[in-house]
Amino acid sequence: MTVQDTRAKLVDVARQLFAKKGLEETTMNDIAVASKKGRRTLYTYFKRKEEIYMAVVESELEMLSDAMNQVMLRVLEPDKKILELIYTHLNVIKLLVYRNGTLRADFFRNIWRVEAMRKHFDANEINLFRTVLAEGKKKGLFDIDNVEIAADILHYCIKGMEVPYIRGQIGEDLGDAIGWRYVAKIVYGALGRRK
After folding, report:
1. E strands within the chain?
2. pLDDT, tens only, 145-169
3. Were 171 and a residue from 24, 134, 179, 189 both cysteine, which residue would form a disulfide, CB within 3.0 to 4.6 Å?
């Protein structure tokens, strides 16, 4: 097993334990035993439990980044692609938080630590939005003066929706189709979408 494979295995085992038992209840020894790697190997890669927790968060963000990049590869008009990016962002974040069981509470409690890990992801996402908005502006689909500012605002609006979306607090009484129609109207209105 390569160094990279060993590290990835340790991170995945830790994620599963954190999801099952929670961050506080999981020990470094638990991770070593469950991974069948031993404490010495674990401590070669991670000095503290918080380091492996942040590695788990980082690996989850990579999954989100990969999903966003897959949307970028699809052949869609910019107005459809921007909505697909938003939909993917919110749904993958929700999936990642929910698949991690008891780690959900730690995610919400440690939101500022998670934020520090997100800086790289956030910068990449803003660049994806800029690319799509610039293409939409060039094609005459969007009436926006400044692509960079519009991408920044769009990113932070979506980021602000994450926690209420994960908790099911947005459009609780609406079906998905109606809810996403509202999102489309708001996004298209803000971008000055031309029919």
Report:
1. none
2. 999 999 999 999 998 888 788 777 7
3. 179
117 in Cβ contact with 59 (< 8 Å)? no
Whose CA is closest to 7, among 36, 33, 34, 46?
Answer: 46
Give the containing element (helix H, strand E) for 94: helix 78-99
Q: Alpha helix locations (H) across 100-175?
A: 103-109, 111-138, 147-166
Please give the model's pTM, rounded to 2 decimal places.
Answer: 0.81
Query: Of 31, 34, 166, nearest to 90 (Cα)?
Result: 166
Does residue 103 contact residue 19 with C-beta atoms inside 8 Å? yes
Closest CA to 100 of 16, 167, 11, 24: 16
Asked if residues 151 and 125 have their Cβ atoms less than 8 Å apart, the reply is: no
